[in-house]
Amino acid sequence: MQHLLPREAHAFIGQHPDALFIDRRSDAEYFFVGHATGANHVAWREAPDWELNPNFISEVRKLAAHVTDRPVVLICRSGRRSAEAGLSLEQAGFTQVYNVAHGFEGDLNAERQRGKLNGWRFDGLPWEQF
Fold it and tell me: 0.70 cut: is pTM over it?
């Protein structure tokens, strides 16, 4: 798995129109916090018990039209959980998996706030909120 900074990931997606961009956060995070424009939503874990989505791999396969060499770019809040999901995709046979380092909201700063140091939104990349 390769790790891309948010601006690198945005450029990669623009240069690879076949890339599948997946936000693997929970429904609440995706809809209420916001998400990168163009990202497909496939939750890796879901509230309230934060159990692993048993259909994650099959949902990604379906979005990828069952093409396992299609580039898949994963994003989460800070880049850690998407890396975990990326490893599972690689184990399932996906050969081009990319993780967005720092994720959508970025790392915590000294005041324990996100969005102040790095991340997709911090970098001013396109995002939306429902």
Answer: yes
